[in-house]
């Protein structure tokens, strides 16, 4: 039964999403520590939205040794590697994780770098867990003889109103905290689940192999009363890759945790992380910065006279309400892709031809254009078939991007799989700088010289983030500056 402290924690989280109890000196201590140790955190991001809390860092989409070496060659304490494994089956996800771990071990050995892996997953608990953690643990043992003491499970994502209290993970929805198991995300056709109680979620996801009572818990009381020393004692007690549940309602909580983790790493312990985006900002010592201005998210070259381009693949209810609000507020050109036609080999080419021609005409004529998939969700009998449908639809969106003959003045991609495929296959990005956020939880990449359109701001909008007016808000901010 929730107690008075629990209710106060919920009240704090709701009244101030980032909760004012924080201390700038903690983040400074983290930065100082990382400068001294040169320790690197390498984030394997299962879709491109994981950079939604950070700025002035780089993401690579190619994990060959040369690109990893390039990514690790500056003084930054964090590097993201986009794996996009959430859109793949288990076999491919395992293969990608093994290959990355093997290559990272080889490169860091050559460069003399100590590192820790973070598996960045979804703040609504979707993705390949425990598979990715298990594979990373196994490959680290094989490639570097590293024994993992435990993996920290931290789905808290404050910018998106996601908090973990009394071991239960909540989403802030319309002024209330709702267990994530009671939201649409728990019904995901590939990664669905039944409980938001994280120790029980671990048991569910491991098919009972890891019982809930085997999970180690770091409570808010441990963090607030015991501080760094108490959390450190809990961390160093872990062994055999134990799941470690971290409760968090604020960056203060994560900063205390991060200092304890760094102290435990110094003592010789090795950890993995299965986290949402907020933890990375804390443990890499990244300071706050204001949201990006309109000038920073629109190309500053000859393309500024072209139309902007918004492409939407996510089919969540949240996304549908957001694009409906955008279309209601602004006279943007609207093109719906008929998904049943895309999935039918006999009509796919004709439908794509129609869309590509319209998009190119609009953008080259200076008209802002929204392309979105038809909203009726097509669900197959099993997870593999659902993944194939998702990949086929996303592939069609990539073809639309590839067909662009002129550079849009801005690009927004809505949805995790969509934004990843658009980044890697559509825009051919290998190495991008993260400029910051357009609004809370919505990162902006700057494409590199190798991309289809170089030096182009690319706005990556997660499918499960934002309020009804969020896409319209970004669009309005851009229009105001013109």
UniProtKB/TrEMBL annotation:
The keyword Transferase applies. Keywords: ATP-binding, Carbohydrate metabolism, Kinase, Nucleotide-binding, Transferase. Residues 42-282 form the Four-carbon acid sugar kinase N-terminal domain. The lineage of its organism: Bacteria, Bacillati, Bacillota, Bacilli, Bacillales. One of its GO terms (molecular function) is kinase activity. The keyword Signal does not apply. Belongs to the four-carbon acid sugar kinase family. This is Four-carbon acid sugar kinase family protein. InterPro entries: 4-carb_acid_sugar_kinase_N, 4-carb_acid_sugar_kinase_N_sf, NBD_C, NBD_C_sf. Pfam families: NBD_C, SBD_N. Residues 310-470 form the Four-carbon acid sugar kinase nucleotide binding domain.
């Amino acid at each position: 039964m929730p107690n008075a402290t629990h209710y106060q924690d919920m009240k704090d989280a709701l009244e101030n999403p980032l909760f004012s109890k924080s201390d700038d000196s903690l983040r400074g201590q983290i930065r100082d520590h990382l400068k001294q140790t040169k320790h690197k955190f390498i984030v394997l991001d299962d879709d491109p939205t994981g950079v939604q809390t950070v700025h002035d860092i780089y993401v690579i989409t190619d994990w060959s040794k040369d690109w990893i070496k390039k990514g690790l060659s500056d003084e930054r304490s964090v590097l993201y590697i986009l794996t996009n494994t959430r859109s793949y089956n288990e076999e491919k996800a395992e293969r990608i994780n093994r290959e990355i771990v093997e290559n990272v071990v080889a490169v860091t050995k050559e460069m003399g770098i100590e590192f820790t892996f973070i598996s960045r997953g979804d703040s609504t608990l979707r993705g390949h867990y425990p598979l990715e953690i298990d594979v990373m643990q196994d490959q680290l043992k094989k490639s570097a003889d590293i024994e993992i003491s435990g993996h920290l499970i931290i789905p808290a994502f404050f910018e998106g109103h996601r908090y973990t209290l009394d071991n239960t993970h909540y989403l802030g929805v319309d002024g209330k905290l709702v267990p994530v198991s009671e939201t649409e995300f728990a019904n995901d056709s590939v990664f669905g689940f039944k409980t938001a109680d994280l120790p029980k979620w671990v048991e569910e996801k491991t098919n009972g192999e890891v019982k809930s009572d085997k999970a180690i818990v770091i409570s808010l009381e441990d963090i607030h009363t015991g501080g760094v020393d108490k959390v450190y004692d809990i961390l160093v007690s872990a062994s055999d890759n134990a799941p470690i549940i971290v409760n968090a309602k604020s960056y203060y909580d994560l900063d205390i945790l991060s200092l304890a983790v760094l102290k435990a790493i110094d003592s010789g312990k090795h950890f993995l992380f299965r986290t949402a985006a907020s933890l990375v900002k804390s443990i890499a010592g990244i300071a706050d910065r204001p949201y990006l201005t309109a000038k920073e998210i629109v190309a500053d070259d000859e393309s500024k006279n072209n139309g902007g381009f918004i492409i939407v693949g996510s089919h969540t209810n949240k996304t549908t309400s957001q694009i409906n609000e955008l279309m209601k507020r602004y006279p943007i050109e609207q093109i719906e892709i008929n998904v049943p036609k895309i999935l039918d080999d006999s009509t796919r080419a004709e439908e794509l031809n129609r869309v590509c021609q319209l998009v190119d005409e609009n953008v080259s004529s200076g008209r802002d254009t929204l392309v979105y998939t038809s909203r009726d969700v097509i669900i197959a009998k099993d997870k593999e078939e659902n993944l194939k449908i998702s990949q086929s639809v996303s592939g069609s969106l990539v073809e639309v991007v590839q067909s662009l003959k002129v550079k849009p003045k801005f690009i927004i991609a809505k949805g995790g799989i969509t934004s990843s495929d658009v980044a890697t296959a559509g825009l051919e990005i290998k190495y991008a700088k993260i400029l910051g956020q357009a609004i809370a939880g919505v990162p902006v990449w700057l494409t590199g010289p190798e991309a289809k359109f170089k030096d182009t701001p690319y706005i990556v909008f997660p499918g499960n983030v934002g309020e009804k007016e969020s896409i319209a808000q970004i669009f309005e901010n851009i229009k105001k500056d013109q």
